[in-house]
Design a protein that fits this description.
The chain is of the alpha+beta class. Strands 1, 2, 3, 4, 5, 6 and 7 form a 7-stranded mixed sheet that branches. A hairpin with a 2-residue loop joins strand 3 and strand 4. The longest helix has 23 residues. The radius of gyration is 20 Å and the shape is globular.
């Protein structure tokens, strides 16, 4: 049984550990080559949507359709729910293609995360999922398609500043520019 005093002491030690970790992180040697490219997304209008999909709808088609219809140029999304017959993949850098597999049957959508950016003349949704089966096994990857069964609930936050994808010839993928 955890007492209130024990819980508070544990929390204090955890916070102290964070402070020590922060000092250690500052001592790590980093080079400019390791720093990511940064885009400020929130200097203009931000809008957040709750998207609720129902049984039988195709998730990726619906997501791209929503982005197109509402003029979404940049955004990020998260979600949960349940699906059937999803197609997920993993990128193979040797062949520069996705190895796709069908996750047949009912799957819990344990986690969905992704982004929206412009590619060509329209929106492109880059989405990854973690899926759970009834037997407790889990898997996931890049989501290509999935049928909603019975619902998927997504939160999509959009930004007015357009972020674009461009085909990277070295990888054969539309990467953020």
């Amino acid at each position: 049984m955890v007492t209130r005093r024990g819980l508070l002491a544990s929390a204090a030690l955890s916070l102290a550990g964070c402070a020590v970790g922060a000092v250690e992180a500052q001592e790590i040697d980093t080079s400019r080559a390791d720093l990511p490219r940064v885009e400020i997304l929130t200097d203009t209008e931000v809008r957040t949507y709750l998207l609720v999909f129902h049984a039988g709808q195709e998730l990726m088609k619906g997501l791209v359709g929503f982005a197109r219809e509402h003029g979404v140029v940049t955004g990020h999304l998260t979600g949960i729910g349940a699906l059937s017959d999803a197609v997920v993949g993993c990128f193979d850098p040797e062949t520069k293609t996705y190895l796709r597999r069908r996750a047949e049957g009912q799957q819990e959508l344990l986690s969905l995360t992704g982004n929206v950016a412009r590619y060509g003349n329209g929106p492109m949704c880059h989405v990854h999922v973690a899926l759970g089966r009834g037997d407790g096994q889990a898997g996931g990857g890049h989501l290509f398609e999935a049928t909603v069964r019975p619902t998927v609930e997504l939160v999509l936050t959009t930004y007015a500043k357009a972020v674009r994808r461009q085909l990277d010839p070295a990888w054969g993928l539309p990467l953020l520019t």
